[in-house]
Amino acid sequence: MNEPLPMSSSGDRGTVPTDDPHTKSGASAPPKIRKTKRTLTPDNFLKTVANFLASGPILLAALVRPKLSFALREKVFLAVTSINDCRFCEWGHTHWAMAHGVSLEEVNQILGLQTESLEAKNAAEAAAILFGQHYAEQLDQFAPESIENLRKYYSDAQVTEILAYVRFITFTNLSGNTVDAFFDRLRSHGQPISFFQGVVGAALAPLLLTLVLLAKIERKLGIAKMRSRWHQPRQDSPPNPDSRGDSSWGKSG
Predict the structure, then answer these.
(1) DSSP string, 168-199
(2) Pick from 122, 189, 208, 235: CA 20 to 30 A from residue 243's CA?
(3) Is the pLDDT of residue 43 over 50?
């Protein structure tokens, strides 16, 4: 059974990218229960932006010398997106994941929350994926035990990178959902939005649409696949006492 393209909070597709890999392949993720999507609000805006900015140096370093594979990075992005349900992020990171060698079946398992299949295939990757989902489900909080579980498989430096990816995609998920809600109101659809959401959605809309356009161009040219071949990151590895980096952790995001 083919799943339609992810829809906005109102059920209206709006300005949806058309080159969806699920449609082309004939495969689909199990249908998800639709719920009210999280957006940027006065209550979470400062924290979400602060977490994103604090992760900036780690994200920039990961562009030059990543400590995790590009494929795992995209799986973590999809894990958080599977909870926050941002259709723009799901569309983009599905393509990027597949460009870095992730199968459509595995993409659908992550988006469909099929944790048993993921754990059976690769316990280390499943730990990172489940951490991302846990973070999103707990509204950007995380339990100390979830970090300790990551440390069973990854060095401190790798765990730091995973958290930076999770915080980054949380910001983009909520931003995409806010723009989606803004578009819905322009078409007189969807749930009412606050003045704050309207202002933020209007401010972010040009940036998001520009990113969607650039992503389409990148995929047409196959840049993601070329970059994956050119830049081979260090292999993921279990924690090594000699390579652990310094990192500090709180009890919440």
Answers:
(1) HHHHHHHHHHHHHHHHHHHTT-SS---HHHHH
(2) 122
(3) yes
Tokens of residue 100, six digits: 């870095």
Domain residue ranges in the chain: 38-230
- DSSP string for residues in 61-99: HHHHS-SS-HHHHHHHHHHHHHHH--HHHHHHHHHHHHH
Q: Angle 147-149-152 (CA atoms, 0-180°, nearest 5)?
A: 115
Q: CA-to-CA distance for 253 and 239, rounded, in angstroms?
A: 23
pTM for the structure as a whole: 0.78
Give the residue among 80, 211, 199 at the shortest CA–CA distance from 137.
80
What is the reported pLDDT for 149?
A: 93
Topology of the domain comprising 38-230? AhpD-like (1.20.1290)
| Per-residue model confidence (pLDDT) at position 97 | 93
Residue whose pair of structure tokens reads 């995790």 in the numeric block: 68
